[in-house]
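My main concern about presentation is that the manuscript never shows what a single data entry looks like. For the editor and my fellow referees, an illustration may be useful. For illustration, here is how one protein appears when written out as sequence plus structure tokens:

***
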Amino acid sequence: MPDAVHSFRELKDESQITAALEEGRLLFAGSCEFIFGAQKLGQLPPQTLPEIAFAGRSNVGKSSLINALTGRKALARASSEPGRTKQLNFFNLADRLMLVDMPGYGYAKAAKSVKEDWQEMMFDYLRGRPELKRVLLLLDARIELKQTDIDVMKLLDRAAVSFQIVLTKCDAVKPQAMARKQEAMQAIAAKHPAACPFLSLTSSEAGEGIEALRAELAGFALPTS
């Protein structure tokens, strides 16, 4: 099966691009329901759909991005205590794709045991989920890369799970600084064997990059019956 994201990004024909964007729009305009929150690996729901997981530091904008993609205001909700939640939240998108909201990491006030638990649980989830097609690793475009972000990239390399860097809050960064940021992040991605060689630039508030990301993810969804 060809890489769905590559397929979309490599489209040159305007009509094909338009069709792919429309497919993404239709998919994410469909029903999307929270079905389960798993705090332990033994609680994970059956693997019935291809899965796309969203990972990132606490407050990076995971919930905002999921809400923007699905056109909802409060489908995914941020925890009132960043870094404390250890739950994997599963959202069924139109019975064609499963969106998985992973717990945030890197919160300074989180206990050491919480951070260790995150790594252990997440690694077990990542390596034991054959239907997991891609992890979207969200990074705040406004701030410097943190060591915890690098550690998670290494964890994804070890788990042999394809991941794609998604820069969030790009509307808050000036164009020249954004270009430098993009170049630097692409160089970092090139050092990780599990990383996709391209980035997604997004803003949940301004809608930047949302349509393209929908089209990319639609390539992983089950076909319509």
Summary: The longest strand covers residues 132-140.
